[in-house]
Amino acid sequence: MSSRLSDYDFELPEAQIAQAPLATRDASRLMVVRRSTGERAHHQFAELPDLLRPDDLLVVNNARVIPARLLGQKVGTGGRVELLVVRPSAPTLTSAALGEAPEALDWVCLGQASKGLKPGQSVAFSGGLTAEIREVLGGGEYQVRFHAAPGTSLAALLDAAGRLPLPPYITREPDAADAERYQTVYARASGAVAAPTAGLHFTEALFTTLAARGVRRVEVTLDVGPGTFLPVRDEALDLHRMHPERFTVPQATADAVNEARAQGRRVVAVGTTVVRTLESATDAQTGQVRAGPGETTMFIRPGYAFRQVDVLLTNFHLPRSTLVMLVSALLGRERTLEAYRDAVRSGYRFFSYGDAMLVME
Fold first, then answer.
1. 169 domain-assigned
2. pTM over 0.70, yes/no
3. Distance between CA atoms of 35 and 361, rounded to whole angstroms?
4. N- or C-end of the chain: fewer Cβ atoms within 10 A?
């Protein structure tokens, strides 16, 4: 077990960072890695139904990415301002607050501006949207109050003035195709600022094939936050703190996972966000998944004992990232890095629009 950041580094050619999706979702490649032996095999994502068991339980994150990136100007000086809407200020509010008004107009945002932002600063965006910086929270975060006509929801304001927040390693502006392809086909719960990217490979036809094979699908919601892209800065991993992310586990999902565990059937997590949701929602006394809303700052790395997840489907992640550490907690650090080096040699595409890995027993 390693507690040093540098132990999760690997060489990644910039040319292998996927800048755009493939023509079809399930055309991605899929590396299968066995936890017990480290054995690796190369497949196409469309072959997934043949790689899973008929009684597997597939758990997906139905979070939908919102147009959370706002570009505006300081009122009075015209200085450039960029805000990324992150979460409602009131801790009791969930992503449903996007559709509420007026109390839902107080939100925490990540901000960048010429000469910084100070409390009392007014910002103007397109479509008549304005905002006031209420408080500097630190770490690039600000408490912001948006101003709009009575009864106007933040969702409506973002639809009018916001842009899709593509990850920072995609070095182009979003285009019309991203509005569809940077969402999963099952995205329903608006509130994320990044896509749960392991799910981007699925098509409705592939789900039909999985269902015919006997693989059941259930959903959770975790509003993926900007923390997923923030670098780990401390060499000593014990010093790293995760940004909070909101989640919800429906009762039907909790029941399905608990039943699968009791019957010895495999729980297949589609993405690291599903892993963190299920593990965070686990009752410490009973070991079962609890239904309902919650918030997680869970940092999963080698040494963690998984309680709910048997199989992980995930994309290839940034070097030195908490996501690589989570994969390493399930697969082992050395085997994870060996798989990543193999992926580089074999020309796999990395990150959000890249290829996928299936970690099995």
1. no
2. yes
3. 5
4. C
- Give the CB-side neighbour count of residue 303, counting CA atoms within 13 A: 7
- Map tokens 């008004």 to a residue: 101
Question: Is residue 170 included in any domain, yes or no?
Answer: no
pLDDT in tens, 99-144: 665 555 888 999 988 888 999 999 999 877 899 999 999 888 999 9
Do residues 234 and 258 both lie within one domain? yes
Within the chain, strands assigned E span 29-34, 40-44, 57-61, 63-65, 69-74, 80-88, 106-113, 122-125, 130-138, 141-147, 189-192, 216-222, 245-249, 267-270, 292-296, 311-315, 356-360
Last residue of a domain, one of 105, 127, 161: 161
Q: Which of 353, 62, 356 is nearest to 181 (CA)?
A: 353
pLDDT digits (tens, 9 = 90+) for 154-177: 788 888 889 999 998 999 989 989
233: Cα separation from own chain's centroid: 20
Q: Give the CA dihedral 296, 300, 305, 309, nearest 10 degrees.
A: 70
Assigned domain for 168 exists: no
Whether residue 117 sits in one domain with residue 43 = no
Task: Say yes or no: 74 and 150 in one domain.
Answer: yes
Other C-beta atoms within 10 Å of 115: how many? 9
Question: What is d(CA 62, CA 263) in angstroms, rounded to the nearest whole number?
Answer: 25
- Torsion angles phi and psi, residue 360, rounded to 5: -120, 175
Same domain, 266 and 231: yes
Residue 274 lies in a domain: yes
In angstroms, rounded to a whole number, what is the distance separating the alpha carbons of residues 48 and 161?
A: 39
Dihedral in degrees, nearest 10, Cα atoms 62, 63, 66, 68: -160
Crossing angle of helices 322-331 and 333-345, rounded to 10°: 110
Domain range for 345: 5-65+177-360
- For strands 63-65 and 189-192, give the pairing: parallel
**Which CATH number covers residue 80?**
2.40.10.240
Instruction: Examine the domain organization and report whether 102 and 186 are in the same domain.
Output: no
Which pair of tokens denotes residue 291? 């239904």
User: Residue 73 CB: number of other CB atoms within 10 A?
Assistant: 17
